[in-house]
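Weekly modeling sync, notes
Attendees: AB, CL, MP (scribe)

Item 1: holo prediction request
CL wants a bound-state model with zinc ion before deciding which constructs to order. AB pointed out that an apo prediction alone won't tell us much about the pocket. Agreed to run with the ligand included and paste results into these notes for async review.

Input as submitted:
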Amino acid sequence: MFDDLTDLYQQLILDHNKSPRNFRVLPNANRTAQGANPICGDNYTIYARMDGDVVKEVSFQGTGCAISKASASILTESLKGKTMAEVKSLFGKVHDMVTTGNWNGDVGKLAALAGVHKFPVRVKCALLPWHAALAAVEGRDETVSTETEKE
Ligand code: ZN
């Protein structure tokens, strides 16, 4: 399934899947949300500690495929220190990137997720942690399912 990804991005995704960052329960989290993708079997909890409008820490727990786990891992590294507005803006960028393969500006290692657009069935996997993280940051303590959300 990785045939069309460049080696660099493939390595990044494999590395984050093998050694996910911030893969733990966050004991002092004040926000959580669940994300479920019943089609693939991806199931994650996103934990966030917000200080006012700013994301101080993010972590995740759960199980799923390589793409969803790598995406969640990269997410936790990307959201730390962001304001809620920045999280929303980044969510939009990632959504566009994963669905079209194109992006604007410097997105760093998030670019690894752009290759996912070539695998439509994996787009939901890649976006699931982001939908859940957005719900968490916005204080919606809920389960986000890929099968009820609008694309
Ligand atoms: Zn998946």
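Recorded for review: Residues 37, 40, 42, 64-65, 67-68, 125 surround zinc ion (CB under 6 Å).
Action items: CL to compare against the apo run; MP to circulate these notes.
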